């Protein structure tokens, strides 16, 4: 007699939670995520299929391997992972578990995933994030992003939260967590931008302009065409 685990046939795909770093492709046209542990070397898109991280030729997940996407059932369990120093800049993802999955006590290991919502934490200065900016590390072809307020962007490569959602496509929502009064969403009615999104974009542009003008002013003070104080 062969022992088989019971098969589940849910009417709706299950929901799970995980943490991951937001990533922007080198050319700035694609948004994705990269995991914080196993599989962290391979950025994935909003809708993605798992492959074996060890390069083995089986479908993920396999019972004899620990590959496949991973998530937990409980949002607070995933949030707890954000407390460690190395995960502070990661985002909390709410995902839909698609395809074959293996259920564990605390979560799922599975074949296909759709990221529905990414909740980003505050800027390092404590202000609610308005953008995702170059975090100073990455993977080949991908820059890791970290939450930033408009004031802390300076000259870094960045995208607004709504911009990241647009690049991610597939109905991704990106939300500023912790004290945020505004949820920035991806594609919506009309051009996909409502008043909150446009206000956030305007704040970012203003911050960029302020930074740019400060740089110009500095050059003006010290540059050849500036004060004319060269000896
Ligand atoms: Zn495998
Ligand atoms: Zn800041």
UniProtKB/TrEMBL annotation:
Feature: compositional bias, Basic and acidic residues: 1-11
Top-rank lineage group of the source organism: Bacteria
Annotated segments matching region Disordered: 1-21
Protein name: Uncharacterized protein
